[in-house]
Specification:
Blueprint: E1 10-14, H1 18-29, E2 33-37, H2 41-60, H3 68-74, E3 76-79, E4 90-93, H4 99-112, E5 118-121, H5 128-133, E6 141-146, E7 155-160, H6 166-178, E8 182-187, H7 194-210, H8 216-225, H9 232-239, H10 241-255, H11 264-271, E9 286-287, E10 290-291, H12 315-330, H13 336-347, H14 352-359, H15 361-375, H16 384-391, H17 395-405
Parallel strand pairs: 1-2, 1-4, 2-3, 4-5, 5-6, 7-8
Antiparallel strand pairs: 6-7, 9-10
Helix pairs in contact: 1-2, 2-3, 7-9, 7-10, 7-12, 12-14, 12-15, 15-16, 16-17
The structure holds acetoacetyl-coenzyme A.
């Protein structure tokens, strides 16, 4: 593809775990010849199995025409060395979130690929800028943040650094459009847009569970009833507890907000190797990808005596998340439309500004003040924009105007 202006060519994906295998599948479905790399042959076999299952399921659901799954799989090859990626136009790195490992992969890629190749990282928790700066040509490095499951979620966050060239961004946007993905542009900041809102919400849900405020099922059911495609605890298991903890730690380091200190339960589960669906056990236990019908808590959880606060759900978890969305808009990191696109296309959640409109700014402010008073945590202070909306003569109209202003 390089230099031709086309939108398919040869791609490499390094690391074929849940995300890497999904990204490789997305590229192959978009017509790219894809080489997936894992050092261990058994990891390659697992990835091949995952892609087989996903493409077969896509066919069964009519997302791929009959027989197309086989054509997609034929565009994929599997290698154990990065050296096999020498003639790629685009390489996406999706190895585990370990800084030294990612640096090593980037150093090798930098040495192997041609001068016109684009390099991307799917990192959720590391600085794209520092990975870019460690290469000989940082202008061709971007973050491409896909969402799990990558073949299902239509969004990709495109993260540019202060070193990324405009030409790289144009090429990347063209490629993603060719793959049928919607993009939002993000500056390199911990969490980007989607995790910047999602991960605090997930951590609060874990804290609620750990403190015995509500059962696992009460928490998840309440949020599903509020329109979420899955409950936050089930979503934690899907995302991976290790990934969540890594993102939280980076957000805590960057923003200094103690709400982002990982719930101790999450850290314990990670230390125990119980990472969620990918290991068969996390906050839930899985038989395949289905949670088993157990009502026992996660291992090691001894909930305190019942002091149920389930009646405060879903608002107690939902409103702080909407407050964060207003804070993000207020500091100029993202517009309401970008936030809505991010959450609805990255996570299939209702657009946060629709949820805020449904609750109403005044009610949201009352709930947020209660949370802030109770926790005395500055991270829960009502967003200035929320205060302003609630104080307007017509708060609903003020919210409407805020949403329209950024079109
Ligand atoms: N290929 C293509 N399409 C597929 C597919 C595949 N392999 N697998 C499923 N689909 C489609 C289905 O056809 C179905 O489409 P329609 O809605 O058009 O019918 C849709 O995906 C849902 O599939 P299912 O009905 O089989 O499953 P479900 O309804 O139980 O949904 C889910 C499962 C897709 C996981 C859904 O619950 C969901 O989207 N949850 C939210 C997940 C989320 O938030 N992901 C982002 C996490 S954050 C992240 O990843 C980034 C990070 O850094 C942490």
């Amino acid at each position: 593809m390089a230099g031709t202006g086309g939108t398919s060519g040869r791609a490499g994906v390094v690391g074929l775990g849940t995300m890497g295998a999904g990204i490789a599948e997305v590229l192959a479905r978009g017509g790219w010849s894809v080489t997936g790399v894992e050092e261990q042959p058994d990891a390659l076999t697992r990835a091949e199995g995952r892609i087989m299952a996903s493409t077969a399921y896509a066919e069964s659901r009519g997302k791929l025409a009959e027989g197309e799954g086989a054509a997609v799989r034929a565009r994929l090859s599997y290698e154990t060395s990065i050296d096999a990626l020498a003639d790629c136009d685009l390489v996406v790195e999706a190895v585990p979130e370990l800084p030294e490992l990612k640096q090593r992969v980037f150093a090798r890629l930098d040495a192997v690929v041609g001068a016109n190749a684009l390099l991307a990282t799917n990192t959720s928790s590391l600085s794209v800028t520092s990975l870019a700066a460690s290469t000989s040509d940082p202008s061709r490095v971007v973050g491409l943040h896909f969402f799990n499951p990558a073949p299902v979620q239509p969004l990709v966050e495109v993260i540019s650094t202060v070193l990324t060239s405009a030409g790289t961004l144009d090429r990347v946007r063209e490629i993603l459009a060719g793959l049928g993905k919607t993009t939002i542009a993000c500056r390199d900041r911990a969490g980007f847009v989607v995790n910047g809102l999602l991960i605090g919400y997930l951590n609060s849900a874990a804290t609620w569970y750990e403190r015995g405020y509500a059962t696992r099922e009460e928490i998840d059911d309440a949020l599903v009833s509020a329109g979420m495609p899955m409950g936050p605890l089930a979503l934690l298991d899907l995302v991976g507890l290790d990934v969540t903890v890594a993102v939280l730690q980076r957000m805590y380091l960057q923003f200094g907000d103690r709400r982002y200190l990982p719930a101790p339960l999450l850290t314990s589960l990670v230390e125990a190797g119980l990472l969620g669906r990918k290991t068969g056990r996390g906050l839930y236990t899985y038989d395949g990808s289905t949670p088993t019908a157990t009502t026992t808590g996660a291992p090691g959880v001894v909930p305190p005596p019942p002091a149920s606060r389930a009646g405060e759900l879903p608002e107690a978890l939902l409103v702080p998340y909407l407050n964060d969305a207003l804070t993000m808009v207020g500091v100029g990191y993202a517009s309401p439309a970008t936030v809505d696109t991010g959450m609805s296309l990255g996570c299939r959640m209702p657009p946060p500004f629709d949820q805020l409109a449904a609750i109403g700014p005044e009610r949201a402010l009352a709930v947020q003040r209660q949370v802030f008073d109770e926790t005395a945590d500055p991270g829960y202070r009502p967003a200035l924009l929320l205060e302003q909306l609630a104080a307007a003569d017509d708060p609903d109209l003020a919210l409407h105007v805020l949403r329209r202003a950024d079109r």
